[in-house]
């Protein structure tokens, strides 16, 4: 059944990305923010006026039968259970990346959504960047010919400002069960771009290293993976969060039988090189800036496109741009990349049950 009036949203988790969702909901005339849930005290969050606030996710869901959509903006390791709770209450779900920390949990979400006839939208907003859409169109039209090689390189900074703000350990950044790893938290968007444009990968070989974060994270800060593209060609991924001072770049180079292209910039938001047989490079729209999070930057600020797609789908006007199956595929690819090598995991780490984010129904 399509929604005729305003689409009513609830947000689980009101940190940086939850606030971004709230701003995009407020900016869309077809949307209404109906409730927010977080474990922090209400007066510390900077909530919008007159929006009901809860510190218990189940209480919010039970008290608000009129909510249509739940945005899951909490730590990675909580996405699966909170999505399942929302679906159990008959809500559609918008889940931030990654959809979950395992393919098995993604499958649980998909099965539940099918059982209750609800939509799951996965936030992969870098697909909306003009450069990514341009390259997607090129490959779809076959203008590069046969793909020989795809190379993805992601070099960002995540230092003490991110993992120990104010000198104390962050509640979930770097935690093995709540964060999950660099590919899940920092670079899932770029693995999504790889999958969206070039398809699945197999025959993976990986290596991982921890150069600068042994005291702040439970896992790698750098790695490389070599693989074959299922549709033909070879590829590689090299990544690091050990870059000093600030983010450097995220690039994707594609070499085909009819040309070569390279996306560059901090989050693959620019066309750095284009040389294709019989092709003139068009002028592309300007890209959105990066999401600003104080001491560090994230990916493209394209969440308005995500919220608009949710509205259009639920009103029966368009198809889902990033559906649950694609969200699961990104998690599946990350899981297989990790399984293809030996990760430098910490021998011990404070248990997730001791983390304050695991209280109050895990919000």
Automatic annotation (TrEMBL):
<dbReference type="InterPro" id="IPR055170">
    <property type="entry name" value="GFO_IDH_MocA-like_dom"/>
</dbReference>
<dbReference type="Pfam" id="PF01408">
    <property type="entry name" value="GFO_IDH_MocA"/>
</dbReference>
<protein>
    <submittedName>
        <fullName>Gfo/Idh/MocA family oxidoreductase</fullName>
    </submittedName>
</protein>
<feature type="domain" description="Gfo/Idh/MocA-like oxidoreductase N-terminal">
    <location>
        <begin position="7"/>
        <end position="120"/>
    </location>
</feature>
<dbReference type="GO" id="GO:0000166">
    <property type="term" value="F:nucleotide binding"/>
</dbReference>
<dbReference type="InterPro" id="IPR052515">
    <property type="entry name" value="Gfo/Idh/MocA_Oxidoreductase"/>
</dbReference>
<feature type="domain" description="GFO/IDH/MocA-like oxidoreductase">
    <location>
        <begin position="135"/>
        <end position="261"/>
    </location>
</feature>
<dbReference type="InterPro" id="IPR000683">
    <property type="entry name" value="Gfo/Idh/MocA-like_OxRdtase_N"/>
</dbReference>
<dbReference type="InterPro" id="IPR036291">
    <property type="entry name" value="NAD(P)-bd_dom_sf"/>
</dbReference>
<dbReference type="Pfam" id="PF22725">
    <property type="entry name" value="GFO_IDH_MocA_C3"/>
</dbReference>
């Amino acid at each position: 059944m399509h929604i005729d009036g305003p689409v009513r949203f609830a947000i689980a988790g009101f940190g940086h990305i939850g606030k971004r969702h709230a701003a995009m909901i407020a900016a869309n005339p077809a949307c209404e923010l109906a409730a927010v849930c977080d474990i922090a005290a209400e007066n510390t969050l900077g909530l919008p006026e007159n929006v009901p606030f809860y510190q218990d996710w189940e209480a919010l869901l039970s008290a608000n039968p009129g909510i249509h959509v739940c945005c899951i903006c909490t730590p990675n390791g909580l996405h699966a259970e909170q999505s399942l709770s929302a679906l159990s209450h008959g809500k559609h779900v918008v889940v931030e990346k990654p959809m979950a920390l395992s393919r098995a949990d993604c499958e649980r979400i998909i099965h539940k959504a099918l059982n209750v006839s609800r939509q799951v939208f996965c936030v992969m907003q870098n697909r909306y960047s003009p450069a990514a859409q341009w390259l997607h169109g090129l490959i779809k039209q076959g203008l590069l010919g046969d793909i020989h090689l795809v190379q993805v390189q992601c070099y960002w900074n995540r230092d003490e400002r991110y993992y120990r703000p104010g000198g104390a350990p962050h509640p979930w950044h770097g935690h093995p069960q709540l964060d999950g790893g660099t590919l899940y938290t920092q670079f899932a968007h770029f693995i999504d771009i790889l999958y969206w444009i070039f398809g699945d990968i197999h025959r993976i070989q990986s290596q991982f290293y921890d150069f600068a974060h042994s005291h702040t994270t439970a896992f790698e800060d750098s790695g490389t993976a070599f693989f074959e593209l299922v549709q033909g060609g070879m590829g590689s991924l090299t990544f690091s969060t050990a870059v000093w001072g600030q983010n450097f770049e995220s690039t994707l180079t594609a070499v085909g039988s009819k040309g070569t292209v390279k996306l560059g910039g901090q989050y693959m938001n620019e066309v750095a090189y284009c040389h294709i047989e019989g092709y003139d490079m068009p002028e592309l729209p300007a890209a959105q800036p990066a999401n600003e999070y104080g001491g560090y930057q994230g990916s493209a600020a394209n969440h308005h496109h995500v919220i608009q797609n949710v509205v259009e789908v639920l009103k029966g006007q368009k198809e889902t741009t990033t559906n649950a199956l694609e969200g699961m595929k990104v998690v599946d690819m990350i899981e297989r990349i990790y399984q293809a090598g030996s990760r430098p995991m910490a021998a011990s780490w404070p248990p997730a049950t001791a983390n304050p984010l695991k209280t109050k129904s895990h919000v």
